[in-house]
Amino acid sequence: MKMKRFTVLLMALLVSVVVTAQSDQDTTSKEPEIKKGWNFGVLPTITYNSDLGFQYGALVDLYNYGDGKLYPNYYERIYVEWSRFTKGSGINNLSFESNRLLKGRTIFFDVMYNPDDQYDFIGMNGYESMYNLDWIDPSTQDYKTRMFYKNQTKLFRIKMDVLNPINKNLNWTAGVIFYNIGVDTVDIGKFNKGKDDVDKLPSNTSQPGLYQRYTNWGLIPESQKNGGSLMGFKAGLVYDTRDNWTSANKGIWTEFVLMYVPPFIGSANANYMKLSLIHRQYFTIVKHKLTFAYRVGYQGVLFGEEPFYAQPYMINVTIKNSMTDGLGGKKTIRGVKRNRVVGNGKAWLNAEFRWRFVNFDLFRQHFYLATNLFTDAGMIIQKTPVEKRYDEIVAEHPLTDVAFWGAGYNQSDYFNFGGEKLHVSYGIGLRIGMNENFVVSVDYGRTLNHQDGVSGFYIGLGYLF
Predict the structure, then answer these.
(1) Which of 32-36, 229-233, 272-276, 317-321 has the lowest mean pLDDT?
(2) Using CA atoms in the order 160, 166, 168, 174, what is the torsion angle rounded to 10 degrees?
């Protein structure tokens, strides 16, 4: 909570500085001056978390406007992020985008390594998996461990996509993506290092978390419990009429993408196909000031079985940030716990009003301040067959088998089969933009149901969509 207050105060100070810098010359309704050449934004990452420790590092976002003919769009974009947490987690990301490297085509390349010591695992199929806040709250009588809904995940991802124009607005796309995902229980010793006995977390043996219980019960297959590698081949169509690639005010972006993962590449022995259909649309209400935007999407398995460790990751033609987790969290349903809505098929909606209330020039750059009011929603519409697996396990190991299920096991503490419904959140955000493309974002979202958590606070780059 202290860090949230500190960040809000920091952002408020920044707002006051830049508003003062505009010298009472509001250019809200004016057309921005065309920028040329390379332009970049640098943002240090300095935060603190009592479990992860201090985060330190930086990110750089570079845009090449060339001769300015495409402005506010650009010819090349390079994004680099490097950050570390003092207790082991980190983000390492490099992405490159160009519409000149391959003549007449746009190429996207992205490579990322993200070790996460506290990756969220809250079960599958949304509300069919219970989320007990008291189990992770040390102040409650029912407390188990703060790490109950966590595991350790190490993700390496490399991807490349190419957009090939059919006409002015319609493109066909092809791409390839490779994942190597390692999964394990949380390293409790790392988090207990240097702490007094009263503050230490219980061991995985004395208090196993949900991921460990799922593997012990057989709900996660033995072949999948420690992760694996896989490669997906993508093809689809993209229709794009947006006026601005980063912060559109009008137009649409609709993408239809199929991804096939063959069994002969990687260690997963997976053989499945997924469909992704995403539509984004933007409406100008007041030119240069007020925009309404929405995004509706569906991603699901057409045939085969996707490994549990790959289900949280979303399919995208382009990646504008280092993280692609969902549904739930910073980039999908703000305020809802990360990975709360995980299953074979999911649908979601984001809708927001974006109000740009100040434009100004500073250090020979164009800046603006904006706020956004939003609501997000999503749910599982194609379930992972957890209930079927559970019934088979119960037939072999009755719930009275304490040695198998553990002392004090109660089905209603873990499962609510048939209980999935819409997950909804709402909130407000702040945007600080430079030259239309480098955008610092702050969002705060709250849930309507505490089964999704209570709230989320996020600082990053860019608009959600």
Answers:
(1) 317-321
(2) -10
Place of tokens 């490099």: 94
Q: How far apart are CA 439 and CA 180, in angstroms?
A: 30
Please say whether the beta carbons of 424 and 233 come within 8 A: no
Q: Are 224 and 307 in contact (CB under 8 A)?
A: yes
Bridging pattern class, strands 345-362 and 290-303? antiparallel
Give the angle subtended at the CA of 100 by the CAs of 293 and 44, to the nearest 5°: 60
Collapse the DSSP code of 404 into the 3-class scheme (helix H, G, I; strand E, B; otherwise coil) and give the result. helix
Residue type, 333: I
pLDDT tens, position by position, 121-148: 999 999 999 999 999 999 999 999 999 9
Instruction: Answer yes or no: are the C-beta atoms of 115 and 90 closer than 8 Å.
Output: yes
The ranges assigned to domains in the chain are 2-461
CA distance 390 to 396: 10
Q: Is the pTM of this model over 0.90?
A: no
Domain 2-461 in CATH 2.40.160.50? yes
Question: In DSSP terms, which residues pair with 359 in a beta bridge?
Answer: 368
